Amino acid sequence: MPLRTPSTLLTLAGLLAAPLIAAAVPGSPTAAAAQAAPVAAKAAPPRYQEYVALGDSWSADVVLLDANGLPDTTHVPIDCVQSHTNYPKLVARRLGVKTFRDATCGSATTDHFTKPQSLPLGGKNPPQFDRLTRRTDLVTMGIGGNDAGIASGALSCISLLPIGIPTPTLPLPDIVPLIGNSTLPLGACKERFTAGGVDRLAANIARSENKVVRALREVHRRSPKARILLVNYLDAIPAQGCWPIVPITNSDMAYLHGVFAKLNRMLARAARRGGAELVDTHPLSRGHDVCAPATERYVEGLGVLSLNDLAIAVPAHPNSAGARSQAASVLRQLRR
Predict the structure, then answer these.
(1) Arithmetic mean of pLDDT over the chain
(2) The three-state (H, E, C) secondary structure of the chain, written as one string
(3) What is the reported pTM?
(4) For the chain, N or C: smaller number of CB within 10 Å?
């Protein structure tokens, strides 16, 4: 989902978090718990030779800083903010694939499968499909949220008050990252997005379906031997809010809960039409939404300190526990 990570934020995160992250190095309780947490159980999935991961920030499992240091640059520029322990890497390690390429990148849309993606710090991620070959026999894809504008829409729901106050669209300066620059942080996003009897986020989701289908069909064309898994979005948004822990009103949280449900239903349809298998991450992530306790949530709220494992996180994105849950869901599907 959309991600803005200015260079000063990366630098500041490193300076502030280094003493905290040190507590999570191997041998500490936090690191031990992370290593002990399984991403799969019992029977080993089939073996694959060449695995390519495609997708946005919920597949990159973006993080600013953790026990591994700054974001991983093995496969993409640093400003993709790709985690060293995102679900594709966990899956690749579990499978023991000979060749692995991770193209996932924060803010990616389906356009960035065939076009380069310009990034906040000046980096450029090549077209993600460039990593595919005719030898590729496994592909995971997590995409669609940015095409539909879900994250930017959700962040515009932030409210400084427990009740939403409808506000007009304003030409506000883009001063505060992660807060939309056209509305005051007073919530009432449900009323804004459904004004006139048309749900604009739902319409965006519907328009995104054909883009996802075309992307899946293009993967088939480029990698005809590949098993293709389309990974949906974690059970991140509860039906009931938890203001001020997550500063979104109950009404707006319920609306966003419905929006995420529509997004995942669209992905299920796209998987069927595009000849892919759907990986449903909900069974293993239910109850671990943004309102869950800090050590139990799989998706962070608006804070930056994650306790799963200790890290400087990107708000409104999966943490390390969420990545392990995603990996377990993928491996479960591969065993079928």
Answers:
(1) 85
(2) CCCCCCHHHHHHHHHHHHHHHHHHCCCCHHHHHHHHCCCCCCCCCCCCCEEEEEECHHHHCCEEEECCECCCCCCCCHHHCCCCCCHHHHHHHHHCCCEEEECCCCCCCHHHHCCCEECCCCCEECCHHHHCCCCCCEEEEECCCCCCCHHHHHHCCCECCCCCCCCCCCCCCCCCCCCCCCCCCECCHHHHHCHHHCCHHHHHHHHHHHHHHHHHHHHHHHCCCCEEEEECCCCCCCCCCECCCECCCHHHHHHHHHHHHHHHHHHHHHHHHHCCEEECCHHHHCCCCCCCCCCCCCECCCCCEEECCEEEECCCCECHHHHHHHHHHHHHHHCC
(3) 0.84
(4) C
